[in-house]
Design goal:
The structure holds 2 protein chains of 2 kinds. Chain A is α/β, with parallel strands linked by helices. Helices cover 32% and strands 25% of the residues of chain A. Chain B is an all-alpha fold. The chains are: A alpha/beta, B mainly alpha.
Chain lengths: 451, 484
């Protein structure tokens, strides 16, 4: 495929990196030093210039491009890039648009006035992901498959958890009324695929597949102290903060929104009736005390400044907040945060990258989710008629070493994988694997063509 | 520097080059199955595969993270690859006792891989064919570049490939005609093989034997210069000389331009500023040479000799049809100048490259303009784009580093061999620009066999440094490279 990406920011360059493995990628970037840097790092053709300038756009093969992704920092540029690309004959156009009202207008007049096939809003994605994570308290990362019927959750095993010191085979022997499957374990930064004799330890991170109905039980099993969240404090009345406050107001009883800038705070207070808005910085203990941080279930820091998020979250945790979640813009922050006592980190731009990769990988793979600090992915695949994977029970099929089949979704029912299970064409299959194995897995799920 | 990683890359590259040795082995075995020479090739092939095996097992014992490669590693890896390649490539010559001295064997092979074409042999016509073939084949391997071939053939490892590729490719920017480097490298090699095949057919049907046609194809398209005759191209018919002249000219053009040509956009050739300068350069000086040679009555065929010699030296090939060392000083001076410049970036030729010369001139003009109008904004343009200060500075740095290395080389040659200055300067320039023959005592009909061992190592260093455009070799001398 020919893919053209405008903007070499976090989204653009990460997409380019992922996509350049299998596709021809052209990357347009207006900033010269950035352009020079990505040219050295990535296996793509970099063109210097503004993507909304037709002379720049026509210097790449826009006429027969299969996919155009406009991911510059400016909404307006992205809309223009996609519309121009459509006029020149590009097939599929994706734009990153952050402005909520612009998004609504674009959705409404799409096809008529604006030639955009998909609109991506990283902030919106982040708000929704945080909401999902708050619904399963304790989960570090979340992904949903089979339209939300199969949950993929990542947990850290706490000291007092019954899982500490448990052998996996003993977990399988016990009859749980609420099935689950541990597909991978991360110990000291290394991900591995557990076997029956693997013994779980405290501080291990486990990657678990759960049918949606076992979620609540499993949560109490992992952490007996868990209970439903009632009070949330959100720091930062930006896009994510406002959206999250709106989403949460139907889920929780008590929501506070903090922002140190007066005009933002006033604006938020005017917009959100059910939310208590406090003007002040969450990096100050007085303000946190005022918001009643010691009884807070979830502290969520979503300002545009990474360091404010980090500092306020550490402080809030110290002062008694049960869980803390922060957003970050810097990719390298994910690892830093791991050394600190913060429960979940969300990178809105990575979410956008995942979302876009989902359409591109298309064929055979209906959903994909990648995880921070590990090179593994969870894939949702639909096997084709006559593909190798449908030819016998799972144990007879030569899966790559670094992969595991997690669950199958058939007839509106979730079946966790085991060796005797046979997969039929058309079912949804969740596979967890290292990035290197993705291609091999894909082959197993597609029918072989001789030519 | 990640030493294991570098060794792993070297071993992977040897997987590619080891197969090349089967070709000269075939010639050697065809001539005499039980000769020392045949055995030497077999041993060299085994050594190559042993390196591959060690690299492989190293990879399995301790997992090597290819993503950890940084710029330093890539540059260092390319430098080391060329050093390993030179020593390994010398094995057949040395083991077969054709060249008793190890220094001489390395000199000959480095001269081959770097497409220099300067020889230590006074009589090549008595050499066994396997050795002659290997000598010429090294031109062809080194011409387009072994790392480029490796990128084209073996599975790549993501973004770091660019660093490797850039370290071996010549010129100021590594342009891409298609986004993926692997595809670019493939395109370059396909063009290379295509041009070589055409050249071979023209030579073969012009009366050369298959063996001679192959060797001269390698020597000309790769702008190398090893011949199978003592008189070089002087031993062949005028027709063959013209074919070789055209082949050398084609080898001096940026290979990416052929891509546009084959896509049916011939005009893009004439839109390229460097190509225009190159063509004009060759035309103008050919005319000058024709005029001087005709006036001075030094040649029986002034047009052919002049054009052939200008192209041969401008493209840094080093074939000859006449002993140009006997020509008037004005022509010898010009030839020395051509040697240092070379042809287009992205071609198989060596030297500074025309693009750098043009840009240096433009930067000079810019500085003069700025002296007149101190506040003027004067952009330096090339191919309708502005050249950034950073690129301008890197060109000037490259220029001065080259001058420094030439001076150092000259000085060392004078010290070690107490030669005359002209011999020393022309040999140093000829080595760093991968030309081959120099002037005076290293003139076209003479050779480098008489030089002392240290002098030969100086030239070996200059040849590799010049071929890799300095940095890949120079960083190996910096202590910072070897620190973790």
């Amino acid at each position: 495929m020919k893919i053209i990406i405008a903007g070499a920011g976090v989204i653009g360059s990460n997409l380019a990196k992922e996509l350049s493995r299998d596709h021809e990628v052209y990357l347009i970037e207006s900033d010269r030093p950035t352009a020079a840097k990505v040219e050295e790092k990535l296996d793509v053709k970099v063109v210097e210039g503004n993507g909304s300038d037709p002379s720049v756009l026509t210097s790449v093969p826009i006429h027969n491009a299969d996919l155009v992704i406009a991911a510059t920092t400016s909404d307006e540029t992205n809309v223009v890039v996609c519309s121009l690309a459509g006029a020149y004959g590009a097939k599929y156009k994706v734009a990153r648009v952050r402005n909520a009202s612009l998004t609504r207008a674009l959705e409404r007049y799409r096809g008529k006035h604006f030639d955009i096939d998909e609109i991506i809003n990283p902030e919106e994605l982040a708000a929704k992901t945080i909401l999902r994570s708050l619904k399963t308290p304790g989960a570090r990362e979340v992904a949903d498959f089979a339209e939300g019927r199969i949950l993929f959750r990542v947990f850290n095993i706490a000291e007092k958890s019954p899982l500490d010191g448990m052998k996996l085979s003993s977990l399988q022997e016990e009859e749980f009324p609420w099935p689950f499957l541990i597909v991978a374990v991360m110990r000291k930064g290394e991900v591995f695929f557990p076997k029956g004799d693997t013994v779980l330890q405290a501080e291990d991170r486990i990657y678990v597949l759960l049918p949606v109905q076992s979620a609540a039980e499993f949560l109490t099993f992992v952490d007996p102290d868990v209970r439903r969240y009632k009070k949330a404090v959100i720091y930062g009345a930006g896009q994510i903060g406002l959206r999250l406050a709106t989403l949460l107001s139907s889920e929780m009883e008590d929501i506070l929104l903090l922002d140190e800038r007066a005009e933002r705070a006033e604006e938020a207070a005017a917009k959100l009736e059910k939310v208590r808005v406090i003007q002040g910085s969450a990096c100050e203990s007085d303000i946190l005390k005022e918001s009643g941080i010691e009884t807070t279930d979830a502290f969520i820091a979503v300002t545009e400044e990474d360091h404010l998020n980090l500092v306020s979250a550490v402080l809030a945790k110290k002062m008694g907040a049960r869980t803390t979640i922060i957003t970050t813009a810097a990719p390298d922050f994910m690892t830093v945060v791991d050394c600190m006592n913060i429960d979940a980190v969300i990178n809105p731009r990575f979410l956008a990258v995942d979302q876009i990769l989902r359409f591109v990988r298309g064929k055979g793979i209906s959903a994909v989710s990648s995880f921070a600090e590990c090179d593994a992915e969870a894939l949702e695949l639909v096997p084709e008629e006559g593909s190798p994977v449908t030819l016998g029970p799972l144990k007879k099929i030569g899966f790559p070493k670094d992969s595991i089949v997690g669950a199958v979704f058939r007839n509106n029912e979730v079946v966790l994988a085991h060796g005797e299970l046979s997969i039929q064409a058309g079912e949804k299959v969740i596979v967890f694997c290292r990035e290197a194995a993705v291609q091999k897995i894909r082959v197993l799920f597609t029918k072989k063509h001789l030519f | 520097m990640h030493k294991k990683l570098i060794f792993y890359i070297i071993s992977r590259i040897f997987l590619v080059v080891s197969f090349f040795l089967f070709l000269p082995l075939a010639w050697a075995a065809h001539d005499d199955l039980y000769s020392v020479e045949t055995n030497a090739f077999v041993v060299a092939i085994l050594v190559g595969f042993l390196l591959v095996a060690v690299g492989r097992s190293l990879f399995f014992v301790k997992k090597i993270n290819l993503q950890a490669m940084n710029t330093k590693d890539a540059l260092g890896a390319v430098g080391m690859v060329w050093i390993f390649l030179s020593i390994w490539g010398a094995l057949p010559l040395w083991l077969s006792d054709v060249v008793p001295s190890f220094t001489d064997a390395v000199f000959e092979v480095v001269s081959g891989f770097t497409t220099t074409g300067s020889s230590i042999f006074s009589n090549v016509e008595i050499l066994p064919r396997g050795i002659l073939f290997w000598r010429s084949l090294t031109h062809w391997i080194g011409g387009m570049g072994i790392v480029v071939l490796y990128v084209a053939l073996l599975p790549a490892f993501g973004g770091s490939t660019y660093q490797l590729y850039k370290a071996e490719a010549s010129g100021i920017s590594t342009d891409r005609v298609v986004p993926r480097l692997k595809e670019n490298a493939k395109i370059l090699w396909i063009i290379y093989v295509f041009l070589s095949s055409v050249c071979f057919l023209f030579l073969f049907f012009g009366g050369m034997s298959v063996f001679d046609a192959l060797c001269h194809t390698f020597g000309s398209i790769a702008t190398g210069g090893f011949s199978t005759k003592n008189a070089s191209l002087g031993a062949y018919s005028p027709y063959l000389q013209w074919v070789i002249a055209v082949a050398m000219f084609l080898g001096g053009i940026n290979f990416l331009l052929y891509y546009w040509l084959f896509l049916g956009k011939p005009l893009s050739l004439f839109r390229d500023e460097e190509f225009k300068a190159y063509a004009g350069w060759v035309l103008f000086f050919s005319a000058t040479f024709v005029f001087v040679l005709w006036r001075s009555n030094l040649s029986a065929a002034p047009v052919r000799d002049a054009v052939f010699q200008v192209i041969s030296i401008v493209t840094t090939t080093g074939f000859f049809t006449a002993d140009f060392d006997l020509w008037p000083d004005i022509l010898r001076g010009l030839l020395l100048f051509f040697m240092s410049v070379g042809a287009c970036a992205g071609s198989t030729s060596g030297g500074l490259k025309i693009v750098r010369l043009v840009l240096t001139a433009k930067i000079g003009i810019q500085s003069v303009t700025k002296a007149i109008f101190p506040n003027a904004v004067v952009p330096v343009r090339f191919n309708r784009a502005t050249v950034s200060e950073k690129v301008a500075l890197s060109i000037l740095t490259y220029f001065s580093l080259c001058v420094f290395l030439i001076l150092l080389g000259t000085l060392l040659l004078i010290i070690f061999d107490s030669t005359d200055i002209l011999t020393a300067v022309s040999s140093a320039v000829s080595a760093i620009s991968s030309v081959g023959p120099g002037l005076a005592k290293t003139g076209p009909v003479l050779n480098y066999g008489w030089m002392s061992v240290p002098s030969k190592w100086v030239l070996i260093f200059l040849m590799i440094a010049g071929r890799l455009e300095l940095y890949a070799v120079l960083i190996l001398f910096s202590p910072a490279t070897w620190k973790k």
